[in-house]
Amino acid sequence: MTSAQSIDILETDRLHVWHPYAATVNPLPVYPVASAEGVRLRLADGRELIDGMASWWCAVHGYNHPVLNAAATAQIDRMAHVMFGGLTHQPAVELAALLCDITPGGLNRVFFCDSGSVAVEVAIKMALQFWVAGKRPEKSRLLTIRGGYHGDTFGAMAVCDPVTGMHGMFRANLTQHLFADRPGCRFDADWDNGDTTSMETLLAVHHHEIAAVILEPVLQGAGGMWCYHPEYLRQLRALCDRYDVLLVFDEIATGFGRTGCLFAAEHAGVTPDILCLGKALTGGYMSLAATMSTGRVSDAISGDGSAPFMHGPTFMANPLACAVALGSVRLLLESPWEQRISAIETQLKRELSACAGLPHVADIRVIGAVGVIELDRPVDMRAAVPRFVAQGVWIRPFGRLVYIMPPYIIAPEELSRLTTAMHTVVADASCLAQSAT
Question: Would you tell me which CATH number, out of the four given (3.40.720.10, 3.90.1150.10, 3.10.300.10, 3.40.190.10), belongs to the domain 3-64+336-431?
Answer without folding.
Answer: 3.90.1150.10
